[in-house]
């Protein structure tokens, strides 16, 4: 289901129940928004698994970087995919997440990122979808 801007209940549930987040587009550069969001999430106790094909096999924030979602071991328990990519990339990322992440519960797209067709596809599979929002902004109100 796509989150209504007034629906804090779902965001509170996501913030409290999610433990493992795959962040697609996580940059190793400390001045990038993705790095700051990942660092914040880690400080709150979430495991953030970096996904970035340009840095696969390296380490970002003490976690091994994977080239694709499908490279993450199935037993990693990824519950949420946080997308730091352009809107044009969302459909492919959602398709891959639906195909390879057995514990997936949430697709989250960052500020300025939206794909309503991909969101509808995920929603039909029972996945909660949050678009055009940032967990670093939303989660503190619920933790």
UniProtKB/TrEMBL annotation:
Gene3D superfamilies: NAD(P)-binding Rossmann-like Domain. Residues 14-113 form the CoA-binding domain. It comes from the Bacteria. Pfam families: CoA_binding_2. This is CoA-binding protein. It comes from Paracoccus maritimus.
